[in-house]
Amino acid sequence: LESMYVIFIVTPYSKKISRALLKEPKIYFFDTGRIKNDPGIRLENTIALALLKDLNLREDFKGERCALHYLRDKEKREVDFLTLVDGKIEQLIEVKWSDENLSKNLQYFAEKIAPKAAIQLVHQLKNKRQIGKIKIQNCLPYLESLESATL
Question: How, if at all, do strands 66-72 and 7-12 pair?
Answer without folding.
Answer: parallel
